[in-house]
Write a structure and sequence with these properties.
mainly alpha, Rossmann fold, 9 helices, 44% helix, 2 domains, 209 residues
Amino acid sequence: MSSPAEILSLAQGSRAWPFQQAQNLVKRLERHGNDKGYVLFETGYGPSGLPHMGTFGEVVRTTMVRQAFQRLSDTPTKLIAYSDDMDGFRKVPTNLPRQDMLEQHLGLPLSRVPDPFGTHESFAQHNNASLCDFLDRFGFDYQFKSASVAYSSGEMDATLLKMLGAYDQIMQVILPTLGPERQATYSPFLPICPRTGIVLQVPVVARDP
């Protein structure tokens, strides 16, 4: 069995992609420091359909980099699997039951779309539970987070205010990456219409930081 020093030497010299990414993280920590006491890895998915191999791959790749980092650094790590279940329900997947019912809820946040399987309070909750079961069966070490819970609890309030304060800088970075049609309506905030409950993709016309 290799000694810790030998493992560290191999990790530092590896050209494999996970180790290259992990080495970049180590250098970033050396430059900027870390006042959290741990390094946070995060992977996200939109529960607009049933979890699949692509969803699995998101967590696998992040875990690979995390494990490579753990060979290079003694800094503790955490992994959050984040579900963007406040995203709007844009299209009904063809592999779901009750297609007509789901059609009636297009545009709503996924956490407010009824579960077509009838096992959970919402379509998002069904898919989130399926993802967690998927990950648990493969022994992933992660913490699950739901966007709908994070926003409704106020956990995101400070970040939203920070985003609002940096609105101009954000737009300067994002707009050049978009086509003309999307540029006309892009906003880093997706408000929910108080009348219809639909997630809106509309431009910001006024701000009050």
